[in-house]
Structures are given as C-alpha cells and as structure tokens.
Amino acid sequence: MTDDPVIIHTDGGCRPNPGPGGWGAVLRQRDHVREMFGGEAGATSNNRMELMAPIMALEALTRPVVVHLHTDSTYVRNGITKWVFGWERNGWMTAAKQPVKNVDLWQRLQIASAQHRVEWFWVKGHSGIADNELADALATRGLQEAIAAAAIPT
Q1: To which H or E segment does residue 151 belong?
Q2: Per the annotation, does 3 bind a ligand?
Q3: Where in the sequence numbering do the catalytic residues fall?
Q4: In contact, 132 and 123? CB cutoff 8 Å
C-alpha cells in the first residue's frame, strides 16, 4: 500500500428529499484526476446519495491505497468512524432498538473501506473548497442525467 494518498471529495443530495437524487466524487492522486457521478430518478434520500458517493469512489480504486476521504456529511463520517461498530455488534439495530436505516449501503461502505487505509475528514459544504464544490456539481449532474434518462421512452 503506497503512502501517496488518493484524495477524494464526495457529495450527494436529492431534490426534493426524498426524491430523485445524485452523487458525485472527485479522486486525485498526484496529477491524476477522476470525476465520477451517478443518480437515481426514483425516490431516494440525501443520506443514501451521500453514502453512494464514497462507496462508488472507493470501489473504483483498483488496488489498496491510502485514502483521504472528504465529505460534507456528518452522517457519513460519524456513521463509518463511530456508529457502524455498535450497529454491527447489535445486529444492525440502533441504540433505540430500531433497524439501522440504509444498512445495505453501510455494509457496502464497510467492505469498500476495508480494502484501503481510509482517513475520513468532514468539510463544510459550499465553503469554497474547490473539489467539494466540484463534487457538488457532479452530484447535480448525476441527478439531472438520471431524471433525463428516466424520461426517455423505451
């Protein structure tokens, strides 16, 4: 595993919430940049799209690497760095004995994260951080393209 980190910025969202959604990710390592995005035209949630962005970014990496992953979602950062261990230990139930929401994506994120050495960072959204702003724009593009694709008759 190289110590030359891949820097990832992610974002996701819906309009309205719940509703159609999109996610975006920017991956950088040295001079290499990859932009990724996707979306769902059906009803999804902000939280699901915020989770899809780091999942898709981590799953796109072809070998184990050090990752500095930046998200503006405290839900994602706290979930993967704190809450997920208790949820898993409690059979994917919350402290209030309710099923964990988005368990399918949390489990997928755990698997994707385990392939790498990931450090998680929270960044304030819409605060002028270039790659966070780009991830936001990519998430919007993913949303728009998903809606447009769903509107095309087959």
Answers
A1: helix 130-151
A2: no
A3: 11-12, 50, 72, 126, 136
A4: yes
Can you read off the two tokens belonging to residue 116? 């790498």
Question: Is 72 labeled as ligand-binding?
Answer: yes
Instruction: Single out the residue of 107, 117, 11 nearest to residue 68, CA to CA.
Output: 117
* Domains, the chain, with CATH or none: 6-151 (3.30.420.10)
| Residue 2: pLDDT band with limits 50, 70, 90 | low
SS3 (DSSP) at 30 = coil
Q: For 29-77, write each residue's pLDDT tens digit.
A: 999 999 999 999 999 999 999 999 999 999 999 999 999 999 999 999 9
Task: Name the residue type at position 143.
Answer: L
Selection from 74, 119, 84 nearest residue 104 by Cα: 84
